């Protein structure tokens, strides 16, 4: 680890709604209704017509979860490097820089302490807008520090996941973050911690196969895609159509893999209630 | 010895191996002829003297010279082919159909392997073998991916791609080992966990995740060897260990080169697979440099598929050494060191505070 100063990208303030086309009105991909953007945003980024949950950034997630003004950012000085000198069609450093400029974030994670309806908690949110929320060293390290902080402070821990999985550009190092975060959760568990894992659309691959599925309680947003392998890979393997609703939250609920499917509007209530039940 | 499946880069060597095998066969024939005692020679072991050789059999002395020359040539060609094997060719060696699998290593290590079946929840996944066995002086619980040898086995094992019940079986048996203070040895050889309907329905991700968490706090020594393919979470799911080694020509990575090529290069073909294999740093040397593994176990010349016994002896020696060392530590120390081992993996910078 070397201390460096590379903050030039922070000068650029990014446009924030990467996955939602700009404009006053937008067509809901679920119900095809034209909806007024401001109304959708005021509705926690949920379609007022059909309840479709739009994907949101980590910052927006924290804004929705935290009691106003209660969030304190932590571990936000960790920056990605290019340990493998990885190069596909584009060198990894170029990709990182483009994503940093686009999002104004160093990497795909936002962590800190906050209050949820007055309950002090530690939170970590993955950010889909940054390289599909993929987990490399920075995400793994941030999550691990967050878990260790929750362990030391004996606070409840909420991790909101949305990710394409482990980050290919850091290969084996990304893979090892799965073990690192899971080991940190073992210690947190040994200390009697309460980890509430919130799965949102989409949560797949190495993130699902590590900390995301290790919640003491696992909540999922409605209709979120949650799985180990992606639907396309499965389809190529089995060479048949996937059943409707496969790998969606409600499917996982029916298969016994998550505790509750919770609409965004209820999430704060549900988290507060669970924290109370666990006696924190 | 010489296998019929030939990788292009080792073709010259396999051609010499064919000639070598042929020469050895001719020598054996020649000696068999000579061992039939001619009426004039009372000794059943006549001196291998050129002058005494029957005229219609090849000269054993000349054959021996030819064999020595061919053996030297084979050695030279194999060294040339296997020194600085490219990452993509490493992947191909790791997948060689004759490469020894977990079952063969277990058979080589143990005289009385006691296989234990089933996860007590859903089924018995043959893609992961578990059971008690003695390795050298150590009682062990052995866990290994199994790819299957013949077509029927391969289909049953899904070519080494385990289902959740495989990972749950592995953990259940590891917990059993923990209960009796028996160390765990895992042999990793999988292209990845199985991507299918049933696997997803039964919680593939959860099964792997729970293994990662529980292995990290298992209170007995764990050692892992990537013997062939170390494909992603499916490999890591039995590889959270105190000591991790790779065989020299094994690969270990977050994704297969083909999977990576399909995503980042938009298509998987010979040239993108090669590029992805390079980029992923999946060789034993790369993984050692990145701190992901602790040791490389050298393979016999020309790869483990050329000398299964030799490969098994080397792996066994490594396991015995590691367990000898780990057995001197108490459980708290082992668990703490295992945590630290994984805790420090990763590459990042600390920037100036905002
Ligand atoms: Zn809608």
Write a concise synopsis of the structure shown.
The complex is a heterodimer of chains A (280) and B (354). Chain A is α/β, with parallel strands linked by helices and 280 residues long.
Describe the overall structure.
The complex is a heterodimer of chains A (280) and B (354). Chain A has 280 residues and is α/β, with parallel strands linked by helices. Chain A contains nine helices and eleven strands. Chain A has helices at 37-42, 58-65, 92-103, 137-153, 171-190, 205-208, 231-238, 249-254, 267-277; strands at residues 3-4, 25-27, 34-36, 72-74, 78-80, 109-116, 119-126, 157-163, 195-203, 217-220, 260-261. The two termini of chain A are 36 Å apart. Chain B is 47% helix and 14% strand. In chain B, strands 1, 2, 3, 4, 5, 6, 7 and 8 form an eight-stranded mixed beta sheet that branches. In chain B, α9 links the parallel β5 (222-231) and β6. The relative contact order of chain B is 0.11. The complex binds zinc ion (ZN).
Provide key terms for this protein:
heterodimer, A: 280 residues, alpha/beta, 2-enoyl-CoA Hydratase, Chain A, domain 1, 7-stranded mixed beta sheet, two-stranded antiparallel sheet, 9 helices, 11 strands, B: 354 residues, 8-stranded mixed beta sheet, 14% strand, globular, binds zinc ion
The count of β-strands of chain B is 9
Residues in β-strands, percent of chain A:
15-25%
Looking at CATH, which topology of chain A would you report? Answer: 2-enoyl-CoA Hydratase, Chain A, domain 1
The helical percent of chain A reads 25-40%
How many helices of chain A in DSSP terms?
9
Task: Please tally the β strands of chain A and state the result.
Answer: 11
Q: Helical segment tally of chain B?
A: 14
Task: Name the ligand types.
Answer: zinc ion
> Secondary-structure element order of chain A, as H and E?
EEEHHEEHEEHEHEHEHHEH
Strand order of the largest sheet of chain A: 4-6-7-8-9-10-11
Report the structural category of chain A: alpha/beta
Radius of gyration of chain A (CA) equals 18 Å
The span between the termini of chain A is 36 Å
Give the class-level CATH name of chain A: Alpha Beta
Backbone shape of chain B: globular
According to CATH, what is the topology of the largest domain in chain B? Answer: 2-enoyl-CoA Hydratase, Chain A, domain 1
Backbone structural class of chain B: alpha/beta
Q: Based on Cα principal axes, name the global outline of chain A.
A: globular
Q: Please state the oligomeric state of the protein chains shown.
A: heterodimer
> Quick one: CATH superfamily of the largest domain in chain B?
2-enoyl-CoA Hydratase, Chain A, domain 1
């Amino acid at each position: 680890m070397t201390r460096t100063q590379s903050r030039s990208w922070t000068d650029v303030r990014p446009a924030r709604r990467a996955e939602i086309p700009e404009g006053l009105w937008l067509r809901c991909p679920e119900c095809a209704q034209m909806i007024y953007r401001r109304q959708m945003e005021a509705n926690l980024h949920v379609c007022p017509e059909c309840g479709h949950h739009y994907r949101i950034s980590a910052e927006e997630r924290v804004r929705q979860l935290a009691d106003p003004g209660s969030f304190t950012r932590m571990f936000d000085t960790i920056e990605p490097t290019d340990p493998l000198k990885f190069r596909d069609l584009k060198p990894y450093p170029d990709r990182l820089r483009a994503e940093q400029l686009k999002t104004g974030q160093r990497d795909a994670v936002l962590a800190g302490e906050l209050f949820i309806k007055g309950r002090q908690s530690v939170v970590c949110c993955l950010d889909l807008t940054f390289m599909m929320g993929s987990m490399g060293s920075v995400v793994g390290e941030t999550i691990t520090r967050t878990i260790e902080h929750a362990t030391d402070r004996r606070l409840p821990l909420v991790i909101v996941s949305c990710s394409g999985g482990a980050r290919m550009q850091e290969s084996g190092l990304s893979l090892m973050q799965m073990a690192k975060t899971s080991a940190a959760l073992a210690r947190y568990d040994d200390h009697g911690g309460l980890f509430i894992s919130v799965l949102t659309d989409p949560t797949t691959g190495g993130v699902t196969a590590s900390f995301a599925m290790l919640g003491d309680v696992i909540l999922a947003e409605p209709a979120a895609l949650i799985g180990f392998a992606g639907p396309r890979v499965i389809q190529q393997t089995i060479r048949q159509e996937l059943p409707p609703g496969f790998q969606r939250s409600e499917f996982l609920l029916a298969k016994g893999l998550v505790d509750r499917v919770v609409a965004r509007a209820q999430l704060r209530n549900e988290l507060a209630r669970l924290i109370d039940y666990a006696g924190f | 010895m010489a296998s019929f499946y030939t990788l292009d880069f080792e073709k010259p060597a396999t051609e010499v191996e064919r000639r070598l095998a042929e020469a050895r066969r001719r020598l054996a024939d020649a000696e068999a002829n000579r061992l039939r005692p001619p009426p004039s020679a009372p000794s059943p072991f006549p001196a291998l003297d050129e002058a005494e050789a029957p005229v219609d059999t090849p000269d054993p002395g000349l054959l021996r010279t030819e064999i020595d020359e061919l053996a030297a040539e084979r050695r030279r060609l194999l060294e040339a082919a296997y020194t600085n094997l490219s990452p993509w060719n490493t992947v191909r060696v790791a997948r060689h159909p004759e490469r020894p699998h977990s079952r063969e290593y277990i058979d080589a290590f143990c005289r009385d392997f006691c296989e234990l079946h089933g996860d007590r929840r859903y089924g018995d996944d043959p893609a992961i073998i578990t059971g008690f066995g003695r390795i050298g002086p150590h009682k062990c619980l052995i866990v290994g991916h199994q790819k299957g040898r013949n077509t029927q086995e391969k289909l049953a094992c899904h070519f080494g791609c385990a289902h959740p019940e495989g990972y749950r079986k592995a953990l259940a048996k590891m917990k059993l080992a923990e209960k009796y203070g028996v160390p765990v040895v895992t042999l990793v050889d999988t292209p990845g966990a199985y991507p299918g309907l049933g696997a997803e329905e039964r919680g593939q991700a959860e099964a792997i995740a729970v293994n990662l968490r529980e292995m990290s706090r298992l209170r007995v020594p764990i050692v892992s060897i990537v013997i062939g393919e170390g494909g992603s979470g499916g490999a890591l799911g039995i590889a959270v260990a105190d000591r991790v080694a790779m065989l020299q020509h094994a690969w270990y990575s977050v994704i297969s080169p083909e999977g990576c090529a399909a995503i980042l290069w938009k298509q998987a073909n010979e040239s993108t697979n090669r590029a992805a294999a390079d980029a992923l740093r999946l060789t034993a040397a790369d993984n050692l440099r990145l701190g992901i593994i602790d040791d490389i176990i050298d393979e016999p010349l020309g790869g483990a598929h050329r000398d299964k016994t030799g490969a098994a002896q080397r792996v066994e020696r490594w396991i015995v050494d590691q367990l000898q060392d780990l057995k001197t530590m108490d459980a708290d120390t082992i668990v703490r060191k295992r945590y630290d081992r994984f805790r420090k993996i990763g590459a990042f910078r600390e920037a100036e505070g905002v």
